[in-house]
Amino acid sequence: MRPVLFIIMSAVCFGTTGTAQAYGPQAASSSAVGLTRIVAGGALLAALAWWQGRRGQQRPTTWTRRQLGAVLLGGAAVAAYQPTFFEGARLNGVAVGAVVTLGAAPVLTGLLEWAVRRTPPTRVWFAATACAVAGVTLLSGLLEGSGQGISLRGLVGSLGAALSYAVYTLAAKHLLDEGWQPTVAVGSIFGTAAVIGAPFLLLVDLGWLATGSGIAMVLWLAVVTIVLAYVMFAIGLRSLSASTVATLTLVEPLTACVLGIALLGEQLSGIGWTGLAVLLLGVTLLARPRQRAGATA
């Protein structure tokens, strides 16, 4: 049960991203926020991994080609997530972009894990993922919209973001299976992503970083939604399958919705409340087998 709780807590941290951005400076664009989040958080994670490695000898003494490939591929996937996600949201709207990305991520992770690791998802995973994806769709309010034309380029961008998430998750899982400590695994991957993303900071307006609210927002995003969230994510991922983790992290939009209602004065329709319940059902279905396994052990 503990690995499941770690993943859920990490998803709750992820879910605070939108609220933190809402309380930040209005001059901060989404692309600038995304880049600073990855670069600052990745640098902190890499520093934490280095510090733990120096103190507790947790870093690997030698890297195999597959491990180095996993770090580079995972870092590239983390860096690619931001522009692909924002491209999908820009062309098709936030609701469509988020639904496609969040809905496709667990499915692509399960299929990719099946193809790469020869680990087929369970029937419980299929049922839970179907519920969770349906819940996200209802929660987004997409079905209450007036049906707009879908941009193929935007759809490709959203699916690219989902695939980036799947690739990162499997890369981290490979390092953990190789005996890497959670902090070292995610620190190596996000440190790589920070190096990749840093030059792109020159292309966005960062004037808002000189404000108190800007600094507070970046600190929250870097420390809570990257360092704390991904360390817990890796701890849970070490004991769970990548497909299970991908579905459990759909607690993220649930958290974002609750915070939006409680702190930002947002409203939720009847269909939205139904989506909230269906999403919770999917997460509960996936958590229960682990509880039983733990009790049996």
For this entry, give a set of tags.
297 residues, mainly alpha, 12 helices, 0% strand, globular
Describe, in plain words, how this protein is organized in 3D.
There is one protein chain. This protein is mainly alpha-helical. The chain has one domain (2-292). Helices cover 78% and strands 0% of the residues. It is built from twelve helices and no strands. The longest helix is centred in the N-terminal third of the chain and has 28 residues, at 65-92.
Number of strands: 0
- The parts where pLDDT drops under 50 for at least 5 residues are 289-297
Q: Tell me, rounded to a whole number, the average pLDDT.
A: 88
Total domains, how many?
A: 1
Tell me the fraction of residues in β-strands, as a range: under 5%
Continuous helix count: 12
Give me the strand/helix succession.
HHHHHHHHHHHH
Distance, first to last CA = 11 Å
Overall geometry comes to globular
* Gyration radius over CA: 19 Å
Helix proportion range: over 70%
Strand-helix topology:
Layout: H1 2-14, H2 17-23, H3 30-56, H4 65-92, H5 94-117, H6 123-140, H7 152-177, H8 182-197, H9 212-237, H10 242-248, H11 251-263, H12 270-296
In short:
The protein has one domain. It contains twelve helices and no strands.
